[in-house]
Design brief:
This protein has helices at 17-27, 39-43, 87-93, 109-125, 166-174, 196-207, 221-235, 247-257, 286-289, 300-310, 333-348, 363-371; strands at residues 5-10, 64-73, 76-86, 97-105, 130-135, 147-150, 177-188, 211-215, 266-271, 274-283, 316-324, 352-359, 375-386, 396-398. It is an alpha+beta fold. Strands 1, 2, 3, 4, 5, 6, 7, 8, 9, 10, 11, 12, 13 and 14 form a 14-stranded mixed beta sheet that branches. Strand 11, helix 11 and strand 12 (352-359) form a beta-alpha-beta unit.
Length: 399
């Protein structure tokens, strides 16, 4: 007998949030590519010093309202979703958006519809006019977000999502429409570098002696992260979906990169005495954090231990951020930083680099990636729809 879909509503702070976090582990059991964040990133961990995004203690909840649902068929979880209203984002952009996030579902349109109906209703009740997603809670530039629609055969790298092919079909069948795509490029680090790159970098250094660069200093990593935040907020401010990073965000970045950072891959450029640009790549911890689907291999403690034991042997990187202050973009600083980092990566034996997430319409940065010999290999999609009139959904039990 086929059970009807029922929804379990879970408020922030409920102990049932643990069950919410476990839903994708049920859905993707034994998937060789799917790689989730640490449970501590979501639920908090004293041992790892993590507050947990899905806990009331996380700074996100100072400026946002959230709710969560699990979809069940009988005793089996078949999906989950969150709804969120980020008041800071709406005030910054002058929007009336709600977001759906933490979206995972079986290939089950009835369950998908029930979850999205619940999120839409919750968003509509709070006066929003449109729903966008998926993300974590939202779709600010620095958040983990998007539905993978191209590149399913490749594993995800750190902070990027992976999902089955049917997700996009379910969301579009429901009525959601594309609002923006992000893309990723894959680069073979050990391949011959573009002949023009060292000449261009040398030309820039010769004609702009005021430009100087340096790698990150591990001894003052906290200050270096604060500088990254400063440059990010200046260089990305005109991008679609941008939200300024805060000191709380800086604390989160510091905690996540400290175990794996290679200082040669985080480089700063100066124009005279002014901080002009930042280039940031990381060895990919997902190589070690991917689930092994064994009872003794998938706890946070074991995954982190595996990362610490293998971090210096990881050969894949992700270029996560590269920004130049607008007033310095015509100087060629990008060529200098690209060249220096590529030389360091080759010398250290790194093999590939994922360059992401790039806005589909950021033609200049996409051309730069292609100039470096990288190829487009993944696409993620962000969807949106008016809240509109809602159908009557299935039974909902509040917890």
């Amino acid at each position: 007998m086929r059970h009807d879909v029922t929804l379990e509503r879970i408020e922030l702070g409920s102990p049932r949030i643990r069950a919410f976090v476990e839903v994708p582990w049920h859905l993707f059991k034994n998937d060789p590519l799917w790689t989730p964040p640490l449970r501590g990133d979501l639920l908090g961990s004293r041992a790892l010093g993590l507050k947990g995004l899905l806990t009331p203690q996380d700074a996100y909840h100072r400026h946002a309202d959230v709710c969560h649902w699990i979809a069940w068929r009988g005793t089996q979880p078949v999906g989950c979703v969150s709804a969120a209203i980020d008041h800071r984002f709406n005030e910054y952009h002058g929007t009336t958006l709600g977001n759906f996030g933490f979206f995972d579902v079986a290939d089950d349109f009835e369950a998908c519809s029930a979850l999205l109906d619940a999120a839409r209703a919750w968003i509509a009740e709070r006066g929003m006019v449109a729903m966008r997603g998926p993300g974590q809670y939202g779709n600010a530039t620095h958040e983990r977000q998007g539905v993978l629609v191209e590149g399913f055969e490749y594993p995800p790298v750190v902070e990027l999502t992976h999902n089955p092919r049917y997700y996009g079909d379910l969301l579009e069948r429901y009525g959601l429409c594309k609002v923006k795509d992000y893309v990723a490029y894959l680069m073979d680090i050990q391949a011959a570098e573009p002949e023009a790159l060292p000449r261009l970098a040398a030309h820039v250094r010769e004609h702009h002696p005021e430009i100087r660069t340096r790698p990150a200093a591990m001894a003052r990593l906290e200050a270096e992260v604060a500088l990254i935040v400063e440059l990010y907020n200046a260089a990305w401010k005109d991008n679609w979906g941008f939200m300024p990073l805060t000191p709380d965000d800086a604390d989160g970045i510091l905690g996540s990169i400290r175990p794996i950072v290679d200082p040669e891959f985080i480089r700063f450029a100066y124009a005279g005495d002014t901080h002009a640009a930042v280039f940031g790549a990381l060895p990919d911890p997902y190589v070690a954090l991917r689930p092994r689907w064994k009872w003794h291999g998938d706890s946070d403690a074991v995954r982190v231990a595996r990362l610490l034991a293998t971090r210096r042997r990881i050969k894949r990187t992700r270029l996560m951020f590269f920004g130049v202050r607008p007033e310095f973009r015509a100087l060629g600083i990008d060529a200098v930083l690209y060249h220096e980092t590529l030389v360091a990566a080759k010398a250290r034996g790194y093999e590939t680099s994922d360059i992401s997430m790039l806005l589909e319409d950021n033609i200049l940065i996409r051309r730069a990636a292609e100039f470096m010999g990288a190829r487009h290999y993944k696409t993620w999609r962000i969807y949106e729809m008016p809240v509109g009139q809602l159908p009557v959904g299935p039974t909902t039990a509040a917890v």
